[in-house]
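Bug #77: duplicate submission created two jobs. Keeping one. Sequence:
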Amino acid sequence: MQTTFPQLLLNHASQRPTGTAMREKEYGIWQAMTWQDMAVLVEHLACGLHQAGLRQHDHMILIGANRPRLYATMLAVQSLGAVPIALYQDAAALECVFPINNAEVCYAFAEDQEQVDKLLEIREQCPQLAHVYFDDPRGLRSYDEPGLQPLDDLIAEGKAFAAQDSGFFKAAVVKVQPDDVAAMFFTSGTTGNPKGVVHTHDSLLNRARAGAEFDKLTHEEDVLAYLPPAWIGQNIFSYAQWLSCGYVVNCPEDASTVNIDLKEIGPTYYFAPPRVFEGMLTTVMIRMEDAGALKRGMFKYFMDMAKKVGPKLMDGESVGFGDRVLYALGNFMVYGPLRNNLGFSRVRVAYTAGEAIGP
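Kept job's structure:
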């Protein structure tokens, strides 16, 4: 069945309004947002952006980490038939000039002062960038640049508009078609200027559904969103499949707390590039060097057993009774505690992609 991202949001909000859609960690505490909360926020943002002049086929850039309000802004933009473009938050200011001008971007979402400063620095080179909305006001209260506005103000304006025209938002969502452009992703541009790659609602959701069906994903999954929103892989795992399946996306407090947050959430569905898994392996091996001789010996023995038996078990091949017993013992003494320490106790499906991964 063909549909769109905003329509999926409304479906979830209608079918299970009190179900958790997202969690965000703030000051060490996980804050939950329901599907109904998300739908209301998206409606107010969409109405506010409509008031500000955002129309079908317009483009809006978003620069920031994974946050519920960034995801809500993407949905609001799509609800109006416009196109969100996420840029890498660690990109230098000059690296943002080409995508902004190439896509003729007039609207921007900036997470915090760092991203706002970046956009203000290049504003003379991007004269059409008239509206910049920031989420985190810290350090920005004294800024008085034209077109710079807190996201809270945009939400308040949208709320007032929605109160006057309660049917506008749903009518706008109905107008959006599966074949409409849903997002644009820019390539790295290592051999020249970055190239904008467009995807429709249907193309993204088609891939998301195919993966979900293969892995039997349900609304009961927990996912940790810690990779850049500008990367299409993150968009599939934490946005397209999130709305397709209706599972919970968890946003870490900060890049430096990802490992702690991973242990606290215990995701059931996990994706990481090879460098993340290799970093975990390095950390484990370094810690084992400081362990006692007995622990080191036990670790080495059972890891060798895992390399021997694990692939066969995963491929459904037959394994001897003795190896099965030793593998089960290793799971009790080494593999289980290690998974728990890394935050993988509940992982049911895990993926890696990108460059080649070491053994």
